[in-house]
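Researcher: Please predict.
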Amino acid sequence: MLTKHILCYKFFKNKNVSNKLKLRLKNTIIGKTLTYASETGTLTKRDRKQLNIFERIVYRRILGTVYDNGKENWMILTNKEIYASV
């Protein structure tokens, strides 16, 4: 189980793979896998919140950090910036 997580983490951090491909894989593989079991039950508010948090973590891994020329430092994307670039 841990090795799958490490491979997934390394894949999403890999700069040789395009962001477009990473986003497609995220939507098809991870999204479908996470919501497959929920078809038989109902998602609670807490479950939806946890899925949204996980989704933002994956997006941040895919998109990476951004260099801000105005402040001359690296920054992590905010939620608005993540959804604007996806």
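Model: Helices lie at 2-13, 19-36, 45-63, 79-85.
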